[in-house]
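Predict structure. Chain length: 236.
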Amino acid sequence: MTGSVTWPGVRAVCFDLGGTLVRPELVATTGQVAEVLGVSLEDARALMGKGAKRRPVSPQDLAHELAAHFGHSALSGPLSEVLERARCRAEDPQLYPDVPDTLAVLRERGFALFALTNALGSSVPEHDPEVFRTLLDGVFYSARTGAIKPEREAFAAVERASGLRPEELLHVGDSVNADVRGASSAGWQTAWLDRHRPPEGLVPAASTLRLHSLDSLPPLLPARSGRSTIAPEVAD
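Prediction complete.
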């Protein structure tokens, strides 16, 4: 098996959350915020990326900040409701059906398993959900690291915690820019998880592999990770 695998040197696998491990809402939280405020999705995304995804913040405080920024202070209540619902979903994530078995197989083989996500500070749970503590060695939220994918520092946080070199890490995600290009630029191995039809005009890095489900991931990795049996030290 080791002679036919795609990534023989990989010792840890890192996953995106929303759209990769976790089923997203039909309308993402940022989209719901944009609808409440009556602003464009691009404007809402720009503001979220500047600060709301880089620091912990309560749903109420973020709602007040967003409402004040766009000059709609009266909308802080409806915004708080949107952000509170998002936090509740993050505390009880709904996984795709192929996630538990795939991660269990990789864990049995000795791979370190992580998640790396661009998360609103208001959506980060106080404690990682039980399902993540069972399946993963650690979850890295942008609101805790201060860096968002595709920034190099977002991936460096995983490298420091795992003690592994970039080429020993595989990142799997559904975003061409944040996941594929970000991880590739960091020197990681990459896999593009395309669960749905890809957007027109978006072509991932030529060196990445395109998957349609996580079920196809284990055969592409070594039978054993080859890493030390000592668990990686992951910072909170």
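Summary: The first helix runs from residue 29 to 37.
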